[in-house]
Amino acid sequence: MTVKKTKIKKTTLLKINNIIDDPKWKKIKCKCKHGDIENSYPLIDCTHCKCNEQNKSIPSQTFTVKDKDGNDVTITEISLVNGKFDDVIGWNF
What we know:
single chain; alpha+beta; two-stranded antiparallel ribbon; 1 helix; elongated
């Protein structure tokens, strides 16, 4: 019997700048009728659900990208770009 060795990647938490603790979008009432797929986000325009989805898209762990020379660079810190409802409209590193 052979045991297959697997490499375990050590991940660390990402440092996130410009994060807002109590964003404005959390105070906006949800317009969705949950349980009715035709009256739920993204089929209807619900600012609360849209902002919540954007907030969930923020990475939480470090990640690796290639620079212009093809070398691997580990990203340990990102800065958020916020919109008018304090929603996340982008991030950069």
